[in-house]
Specification:
By secondary structure, the chain is mostly helical. It contains five helices and two strands, in the order ααααββα. A two-stranded antiparallel sheet has the order 1-2.
């Protein structure tokens, strides 16, 4: 697994506007920069820039639709991002459990 691609993927989904865009694209089965900008508090130009980021990391792909491009979520790449999120979550859960056990041992070792 290439960490640069992973970092870019995480950076792309780390932005709340892009996450909202992914949600809208999933709910609507796709959309254009214009249709997305009508549902978001940002300009069409800002939406286009966000779509460019999502496209570069493979989370969306575009097809020509008249004068615009229609974007759809790449479900395989989204599944990859979700799998990474779960893996990171599991790693942190394990770390937190170790910290909890250490804290409990320290608490039990203290004289009352």
């Amino acid at each position: 697994m290439n960490s640069t691609i992973d970092d870019e993927l995480w950076s792309a989904v780390g932005d709340p506007t892009r996450r909202r865009m992914l949600g809208l694209l999933l709910a609507d089965g796709g959309g254009t920069a214009t249709t997305l900008s009508e549902q978001l508090p940002v300009t069409r130009q800002a939406v286009a820039k966000h779509l460019g980021v999502l496209d570069r990391v493979g989370l969306v792909h575009a097809t020509p639709a008249g004068r615009e491009r229609r974007y759809e979520v790449d479900e395989a790449q989204l599944a990859r991002a979700v799998a990474q999120l779960f893996a990171v979550g599991a790693t942190w859960d394990a770390r937190l459990q170790r910290i909890k056990r250490i804290a409990e041992r320290i608490q039990h070792a203290r004289p009352d």
